[in-house]
Design a protein that fits this description.
Helix 2 links the parallel strand 2 and strand 3. The chain folds into two domains: about 200 residues, Rossmann fold; about 160 residues, Rossmann fold, CATH 3.40.50.2000. The strands form two sheets. Strands 3-2-1-4-5-6-7 form a seven-stranded parallel beta sheet, sandwiched between helices. The chain is an alpha/beta fold. It is built from 16 helices and 13 strands. The longest helix is centred in the first third of the chain and has 21 residues.
Length: about 375
């Protein structure tokens, strides 16, 4: 019997990272793939991106509706609970041999919590990282303690997982699988990309990716207003993407809609799709916001990034990242520096600290070969040696 591997995807933000893993699993004869789709993938207000999963032809075994139509703290907490119940019903109907989750979303936490009573081993991608400004920080580490295998994106993160008490044999440093896909995607020409986004892509071309800083959600309006004020003083075309399904995310959407209505050459999109997004990483002159994409993916394209605020604080970063505060003048200073010709020229040959684009084969080899049974399920806390 083939070993069944369930993979959870909850948003466009994780899907691109998971596609290379899905491809590798499907290519292995003795593995059977099943995809669990949940979260904002199924929400119309976020572009119903499940259509991308369907179009790509992956075997969807369950669709877990879990998001309430609200972004208040209470609604996020309740959505997490709904997700636990939904994944529990899904696993009761069809329990895979292994479950793969990625990152730090509350929807992923729901899947990992639901797996626990089923003695369902969980493999976690992108553990050990830090995002000190967001509740994702606690969620990621909680998923680590609920997981049985760990696939870290860089050596410092692998060491941190061991520091958290995970047995070293469970921890594997494989790199970021999202790079596997991004580096291989066909790219649109600048003219085709301009047609796709509906802008001429005048230079400088800015890619804007702002998400709520969930531990500072009361300040979301200020964060978005300051970014909008800075962008209103910059020439060129701006392509802004929707934030994720986080507390106060609607506030950012409203501010970006107002910016798009008032600033010529600004376009707000719910989802660009992988091909257009990868093409923008190549064609943009700068990314500005607080997305992990600027930290993990942009270095592979030598793309300057103005990283705003505390959301990504603590993450390993390349020389392409310029950290800025929340104020409009700080953002403008970062943009001016990023747009200096010498800054981008200095990024030639930049090595991405998140790997070489060969992560997925390493991950799937371990998923195929790891021994299932009590040793994998029964976790022991590995104490650090005495000082």
């Amino acid at each position: 019997m083939p070993r069944t591997v369930g993979v959870v995807t909850v948003a466009r933000s994780d899907y691109g990272h998971l596609v290379p893993v899905l491809q590798e699993i499907q290519a292995v004869p003795d593995l059977e793939l099943g995809v669990y789709v949940a979260g904002s993938h199924l929400a119309t207000r976020f572009g119903r991106t499940v259509t991308a999963v369907e179009t790509d032809g992956w075997p969807i075994v369950e669709r877990i509706e879990m998001l309430l139509d609200s972004d208040t703290p209470g609604a996020i907490a309740a959505s997490t609970g709904i997700g636990v119940a939904g994944f529990a019903r899904a696993f009761a109907r069809r329990r895979p041999d292994l479950l793969v989750v990625l990152g730090d979303r509350f929807e992923m936490l729901s899947a990992a919590v639901a797996a626990l009573p089923f003695a369902l081993p969980v493999a976690h991608l992108h553990g050990g990282e830090l995002t000190e400004g967001a509740m994702d920080e606690q969620i990621r580490h909680a998923i680590t303690k609920l997981s049985h295998l760990h696939f870290a994106a860089a050596e410092p993160y692998a060491r941190r997982l061991v520091q958290m008490g995970e047995e070293p044999w469970r921890v594997h440093c494989c790199g970021a699988p999202g790079l596997d896909r991004l580096l291989r995607l066909a790219r649109l020409s600048r003219a085709a990309l301009a047609e796709r986004v509906g802008l001429p892509l005048r230079r400088p071309t800015l890619l804007v990716t702002l998400h709520p800083v969930t531990l500072e959600y009361a300040d979301t309006a200020m964060h978005a207003d300051e970014l909008a004020a800075a962008l209103s003083k910059v020439d060129g075309d701006v392509i802004a993407t929707y934030p994720g399904a986080d507390t106060a995310g609607q506030t950012i959407i409203e501010r970006l809609e107002a910016l798009a209505a008032s600033r010529p050459g600004t376009r707000l999109v719910k989802s660009l799709g992988d091909e257009a997004y990868a093409s923008l990483l190549r064609e943009a002159d700068v990314m500005v916001g607080n997305s992990s994409s600027g930290i993990i993916e942009a270095p592979s394209f030598g793309l300057p990034v103005v990283n705003i605020g505390s959301r990504q604080r603590g993450r390993l970063r390349g020389a392409n990242v310029i950290d800025a505060g929340y104020g409009r003048n700080e953002i403008l200073d970062g943009l001016r520096r990023a747009l200096e010709p010498g800054f981008r020229a200095g990024l030639a040959g930049l090595v991405n600290p998140y790997g070489d684009g060969q992560a997925a084969p390493r991950i799937v080899e371990i998923l195929r070969d790891v021994e299932l049974g009590p040793r994998l399920i029964q976790k022991r806390f590995a104490d650090a040696p005495p000082a």
